[in-house]
Design a protein that fits this description.
There is one protein chain. The protein contains 23 helices and eleven strands. It is α+β, with helices and mostly antiparallel strands. Among the domains are: 2-106, no CATH class; 170-420, no CATH class; 503-567. The strands form three sheets. It has a six-stranded antiparallel sheet with strand order 4-5-9-6-8-7. A three-stranded antiparallel sheet has the order 1-3-2. A two-stranded antiparallel sheet has the order 10-11. The relative contact order is 0.05.
Length: 646
């Protein structure tokens, strides 16, 4: 309502001037100590604005009008007006007329143009788009039959990629964010990036000629533009990852003389690739500054308008000289437009034992960060306090620290070892390509002659964009692992052979021991020689005795032997009884058959049989009864069995 009153009762809410006026009004009310609907610097979104004015219109406090005006191109443009109820219609028409005139800028005459011979580039530069995903090239060429096929860490598709030429493989590798970023020296670990940012500011404080955006060396204050324009290009690329590959940037970083060029002195094409000054770069630096603030290394500042400011420094360029602590409310790392622009770097900072707790770590000590060398020692101690749990236990057991309430919850990434890892991280596709360069006989490019080795390692380094020492280290490690694997297989085979020999010896010893036990058992049961008829039964029991082992006792086998001997005796007695029966008498002499009679002819045999016999034919037809009272009966089905019975 105040904006509406200041504007004379009529305001166009579709223009950016309305939102700028709202931000200025919030700042004026805050300075005057009056309550505000939002923190200073907050930009009202369109949905909130429409909802607020609709509510006021329902209450009868304002009125709204939606109209249209003509643009210079002759197109119709929507216009939304909000006005007080006492505003007359004539004033609305005049306001709309002036609003339409304001939409038509003044066009200069043709004779006022100035001809410029050199080519100028207008606009904010080309937009930087992210590359395609890894292996998406193959996905477009050969989609495959499986719609749910996984394209990340797909060994079959990776082997298919390696059949292409080196330039294609390199382009696909550079579509991975990690590979592209590390090709320009980007630091993967978040803790190490924050460390590098902190040390770079301290180096600027100790330099003889500080950059323009260092507000005060004595008070240790910098403006956020220091990170965007004053850092050298190699340091900038190690903190903010580029999104696209650029040959000019690669050549710039490959030269030792040009890699230290400040960001403000780079060509515009390279600055556009690195997105210098844009919100993405500011967000990345604000993220690292927020980490330093959580460690009590920095404090955000804002220009002071009080009579007794917190910090006063000597003037430098156009920077303010009086500062107060900036509030933490009303901004985040994702809102760089309203975030604090000035930051104070402390002389000392506490070190907490983050390895013991994420939310309430005990205090270890206060470390000095006044100089660059002191800061290096501070970060070493901080890494030890974050990752070495055993050392933190020993430090805590000494009784020095005392558990204090932590100001912030430490990020989990600082407790991870990978957050402090400074080595180059090979991606999965790079690792598969390096393995693909090793043949089946575990011969790496390092095992070739000097000339071929140099050519192979250089080619692999160009394709994978990985450093040479990382590639050689991978091959050395792979060769050592392969050698250890081969040795393990040989040892396993040798050990299995020794085990088989040992088991055979033990088995033979056990068999001999059982043979001795069998001999003693047989001697005890039957001291004399075993008769031949009982030898078969005793041998059967002998085999069972060897197979059973020491499971059954000696009493069991003694009974088996006695039973076998007893069965042999019984069989001998039966054979004696059968031998005493009388022998059968002589067989009778067979009687010779009578002499054969003469055969008769067939005709005579037929005449001897006589005439044929006539048999009565049985009438099987049943007579039906004339009356219809015939009862149903069971029909017997005759068959071959019935005929046989009859």
């Amino acid at each position: 309502m105040r904006l509406l009153e200041k504007a004379g009762g009529i305001i166009a809410v579709h223009s950016k001037e309305f939102y700028e006026s709202h931000i200025n009004l919030l700042e004026e009310l805050s300075q005057a100590g009056e309550p505000t609907s939002a923190p200073v610097g907050t930009k009202t979104d369109k949905r909130t604005m429409v909802s607020t004015f609709s509510t006021l219109e329902n209450k009868g406090r304002v009125k709204q009008l939606k109209s249209s005006i003509l643009t210079p191109a002759g197109l119709s443009r929507q216009a939304s007006l909000v006005y007080l109820p006492d505003v007359h219609e004539a004033r609305l028409n005049v306001f709309l007329l002036e609003l339409g005139r304001a939409a038509h800028p003044h066009l200069p005459q043709l004779d006022s143009f100035v001809k410029i011979d050199e080519q100028l580039e207008f606009g904010a530069g080309p937009s930087v788009s992210r590359g395609i995903l890894p292996l998406q090239l193959l996905q477009m060429e050969e989609a495959g039959h499986d719609e749910k096929e996984r394209w990340s860490k797909n060994i079959r598709r990776a082997k298919q990629l390696f059949t292409h030429d080196d330039s294609t493989i390199r382009d696909v590798f550079l579509t991975e964010k990690s590979t592209l970023a590390q090709s320009y020296g980007f630091i993967i670990g978040k803790a190490l990036r924050s460390r590098q940012l902190h040390l770079s500011v301290l180096e600027a404080f100790e330099s003889c000629a500080p950059p323009p955006n260092v507000v005060s060396k004595e008070k240790r204050i910098v403006e956020i533009s220091f990170f965007l324009y004053d850092l050298p290009v190699d340091l900038y690329c190690s903190l903010v990852a580029p999104l696209n590959h650029d040959e000019k940037l690669s050549a710039l970083l490959a030269n030792d003389g040009s890699r230290k060029t400040p960001m403000r002195d780079l060509p515009m094409t390279v600055q556009n690739v690195l997105q210098v000054g844009r919100s993405r770069a500011r967000t990345r630096f604000l993220d690292m500054l927020e980490v330093l603030r959580a460690l009590d290394l920095v404090t955000p500042l804002q220009p002071s308008k009080l009579s007794a400011p917190l910090i006063t420094c000597s003037p430098h360029d156009q920077h303010p000289t009086e500062f107060d602590v900036a509030p933490l409310e009303g901004w985040t790392i994702n809102t760089p437009a309203v975030a604090p622009s000035y930051w104070l770097f402390h002389d000392s900072a506490p070190i907490y034992l983050w390895a013991r707790s994420e939310t309430d770590p005990p205090l270890w000590k206060n470390g000095s960060v006044s100089r660059h060398q002191d800061s290096i020692e501070y970060w070493k101690d901080l890494q030890k306090a974050c990752t070495d749990s055993e050392a933190s236990v020993e430090i805590f057991a000494e009784g020095r620290p005392e558990i204090l309430e932590s100001k912030v919850g430490m990020a989990r990434s600082f407790r991870r070892v990978v957050s402090w890892k400074s080595e180059y991280c090979l991606t999965w596709h790079q690792t598969q390509y390096l393995k693909h360069s090793v043949d089946s006989s575990v011969t790496t490019p390092l095992d070739l002659d000097a000339t071929e080795k140099e050519a192979q390692v250089t080619r692999i380094g160009w394709v994978t964009t990985a450093p040479r020492d990382v590639i050689e280290g991978f091959f050395v490690s792979h060769r050592e692992k392969s050698t250890k694997t081969v040795e393990k297989v040989k040892k396993r085979k040798k050990r299995s052979k020794e085990v088989r020999i040992s088991l055979a010896k033990k088995s033979e010893a056990a068999r001999l021991q059982r043979e001795c036990e069998w001999s003693a058992l047989l001697t005890r049961c039957h001291p004399d020689n075993i008769p031949p008829p009982a030898a078969v039964r005793i041998e059967r029991i002998h085999k069972q005795f060897l197979q059973a082992g020491p499971i059954k006792g000696a009493d069991h086998w003694e009974k088996e032997i006695e039973a076998a001997l007893h069965e042999t005796d019984l069989a001998g007695m039966k054979s004696l009884k059968l031998s005493r029966q009388p022998l059968p008498g002589p067989s009778p002499v067979p009687i010779a058959p009578p002499a054969s009679q003469p055969e008769l002819a067939i005709d005579k045999l037929i005449e001897m049989q006589g005439p044929p016999i006539n048999h009565d034919v049985y009438n099987r037809k049943r007579k039906r009864k004339e009356d219809g009272n015939r009862k149903s009966c069971y029909n017997f089905h005759s068959g071959n069995n019935y005929r046989l019975l009859t």
